[in-house]
Amino acid sequence: MKECSPTLVRKEKRYALHIAYEGDVKLTQAEFSKQRVCAARFRINTFRSLFRDGRFTGKLKQAQRQSGIGAKPNFWRQMNGLQTHIVHDTAHQIIAFTQKHSADVIIMEYLGKMRLPKGTWGAKRLRAKLQFWAKRRIQTKVTEMAHFLGMRVSMVNPANTSALAFDGSGWVKRNTKRDVAERIGCWLPSFGCNRRLSL
Question: Record's InterPro entries (predicted)?
Fold first, then answer.
């Protein structure tokens, strides 16, 4: 790995020296039929609920009432810092899960931009943006970490990813709780994938 120029970063009253390294990374060369692709659903615990309960937006609104509408950099620094922590923590949990199951490929759904309903503006628009999962940042972080470990990352169309069986054997039927699936048809040959991870 080649060492790049260091960067001095200030975090509140502390300083840190960030050194980046660049080099060629060899991804897994396993045959397609022998690649393990994770497809399990698991819960990722994050601090996203802090945005949902309106704690930060409430403090910001109270500060604006007292001193008028302004930049309020301290509040935004806290919210942006928490959002960054959620992104990094989520990516680390995903990579840890794939390493635990010795996955060769990580499959992620290609999701479009966030669309807010008409008439959403002001504080309501702010809360919606904070509650929205930063999927693009998480996907970028996971891709960087996966490539460093030699794992491949593939983006797929999200259409029918929950309605079709993981091995391409056809459609599935789910119960009322949508936690158990049963195959109801067969229309494609098996791709030889063991598991797949849907994000």
Answer: Cas12f1-like_TNB
One-character DSSP codes across 115-177: -PPTT--THHHHHHHHHS--HHHHHHHHHHHHHHTT-EEEEE--TTTTTB-TTSS-BEEE-TT
Q: Over the stretch 77-87, which tens digit does the pLDDT of each residue have? A: 887 888 888 88
| pLDDT single digits (tens) 33-64 | 788 887 666 777 666 555 555 676 677 777 77
- DSSP assignment of 25-94: -PPP---GGG--B---------STHHHHTTHHHHHHHHHHHHH-S---HHHHHHHHHHHHHHHHHHHHHH
